[in-house]
TrEMBL record:
InterPro entries: Metallo-B-lactamas (IPR001279), Mito_Persulfide_Diox (IPR051682), POD-like_MBL-fold (IPR044528), Rhodanese-like_dom (IPR001763), Rhodanese-like_dom_sf (IPR036873), RibonucZ/Hydroxyglut_hydro (IPR036866). Residues 270-361, 375-463 form the Rhodanese domain. It comes from the Bacteria. Keywords: Metal-binding. PROSITE patterns: RHODANESE_3. One of its GO terms (molecular function) is sulfur dioxygenase activity. This is Beta-lactamase. The keyword Chloroplast does not apply. Gene3D superfamilies: Rhodanese-like domain (3.40.250.10), Ribonuclease Z/Hydroxyacylglutathione hydrolase-like (3.60.15.10). SMART domains: Lactamase_B (SM00849), RHOD (SM00450). It comes from Flavobacterium enshiense DK69. It holds the Pfam family Rhodanese.
Length: 471
């Protein structure tokens, strides 16, 4: 069976392309859709269906633009109620792509409309399942997203539905089936996802904690909800965009791809109260940047961090980008629903300084300098990594303020004395430093290369010890 996984690493997202006998289907497309059209054109195929496994929360799907461009019909699972024309599949309804058969299996739990698609080849052999966020490699979908839209739909209720879906709909299927999930490691849609992006169902039954044969529903719910952090603020906003509709990507690009001279850039920033978002490399931002700008580099997990840290997808944004990266930045913002980009600084920092505007910098030191001076200065150390990373190893007495929660934990940031700030490799700490500077904190010292550099510089690291294990 011909199926291609189209994996976008910065989003930890997998779309799927299936083609047979001149017909094609796309599953869970990203917002920029031309690459899917190009694949079908290369195969002399017509895109017949756009299958959605559920209303996505972590990105804006390209279903509407793709449908308008190709005439393909959009398919959702049972109970879905979008504000546009679509096919609402019945449980076990079958669709044809050439000689292939796609069978919709309703698997509620991650969301009410979540649907798994069973792939059957031209010989009637079951090949695999496109599971969306119902089943990942090593994990299952979080059950706390739909409650943001339906208040009486608790995460406990959804977790119970997911247990039933997995036991009654997924686990009875053949062990030979290949599992094709919507996400891999790094996605906020689960908590324990593998770096692998496919596996057999049989192996998942052996290694995935959520598929243990002897697991009760109560045990499943408890384990699934244990350690589940709050979802990013943009998730429910993206769900609504996927349900209600949105402007075409071409419209967004036309508005946002506007080069602004420094004077116009500054005037528009003041007039619109736009966030100035600098997407260059962290090393460039540390050396010099526009005052009050926030750094989130394109080379890292750009879109998820934008979504996690900018609370409103409608907030106006002005960009500072490396030359030639303007369209990429606008597109990647649009992937997560940030459509209100007003333009970018023409000529970048060079033009900004030539126009007589000031720049600022961040104090940044090497891991070796940190190792030499930390015991002398006695400055506090702030670790911006996730709690799980912090527990694995950290600088002794370091304060853990995860970047995801810097806005909520601002009161824990040292105010009256200098402090060291680090992450895992140097990306997240500069994001946090930029946010803190924009809020009036100027007392941080960034440690380059993060914990990896600190470890290599010979700084002793300690592990978190649970109090219950202490004698």
């Amino acid at each position: 069976m011909k199926i291609e996984q189209i994996y976008t690493g910065c989003m930890a997202h997998a779309a799927y392309y299936i083609e047979n006998n001149g017909e094609a289907a796309i599953f869970d497309p990203l917002r920029e859709v031309q690459s899917y059209i190009d694949k079908a054109t290369k195969d002399n195929a017509k895109i017949k269906y756009i299958f959605e496994t559920h209303f996505h929360a972590d990105f804006v799907s390209g279903h509407l633009d793709l449908s308008k461009k190709t005439g393909a019909q959009i398919v959702y699972g049972p109970t879905a109620k979008p504000n546009f024309e679509t096919i609402i599949a019945e449980d076990n309804q079958e669709f044809k792509i050439g000689n292939y058969t796609i069978k919709a299996i309703h698997t509620p739990g991650h969301t009410l409309e979540s649907t798994t698609y069973l792939l059957i080849d031209e010989n009637g052999q079951q090949h695999g399942i496109i599971t969306g966020d119902t089943l990942f490699i090593g994990d299952v979908g979080r059950p706390d997203l739909a409650q943001k839209l339906v208040t009486d739909l608790t995460q406990e209720k959804l977790a119970g539905m997911l247990y039933d879906s997995l036991r009654n709909k997924i686990m009875p299927l053949s062990d030979d089936l290949i599992v094709y999930p919507n996400h891999g490691a790094g996605s906020a849609c689960g908590k324990n996802m593998s770096k692998e992006t496919t596996d057999t169902l049989g192996n998942q039954k052996k290694v995935n904690y959520a598929l243990r044969a002897d697991m009760t529903k109560e045990e499943f719910i408890a384990e699934l909800l244990d350690g589940l952090s709050a979802p990013p603020a943009y998730f429910p906003q993206n769900v609504l965009m996927n349900i209600q509709g949105y402007d075409s990507l071409e419209t967004i690009m036309t508005k946002a791809n506007t080069a602004l001279e420094p004077d116009s850039f500054e005037a528009l920033a003041n007039q619109s109260e736009a966030l100035i978002l600098d997407v260059r490399h962290e090393n460039d931002f540390v050396k010099e940047h526009v005052p009050n700008s926030v750094f989130i580099g394109l080379h890292g997990n750009f879109a998820p961090w934008v979504g996690a840290l900018i609370m409103d997808v409608k907030h106006p944004i002005l960009l500072i980008t490396p030359e030639g990266k303007e369209e990429e930045a606008i597109t990647r913002l649009a992937r997560v629903g940030f459509d209100n980009c007003l333009g970018y600084l023409k000529g970048g920092l060079t033009a900004w300084k030539a126009a007589g505007f000031e720049t600022e910098s961040i104090v940044s030191i090497s891991p070796e300098q940190f190792a030499t001076e930390k015991d002398q200065t006695k400055h506090p150390v702030v670790d911006s990594r996730k709690p799980s990373e912090y527990k694995a190893e950290h600088v002794e007495n370091a304060i853990n303020i995860p970047l995801d929660f810097v806005n909520a934990q601002l009161s824990e940031v040292p105010k009256k004395e200098e402090f060291y700030l680090h992450c895992a490799g140097g990306y997240r700490s500069v994001i946090m430093a930029s946010i803190l500077k924009a809020r009036g904190y100027h007392n941080m010292i960034n440690v380059e290369k993060g914990i990896s550099g600190i470890r290599n510089a010979g700084v002793p690291l300690t592990q978190f010890v649970c109090p219950s294990t202490l004698k």
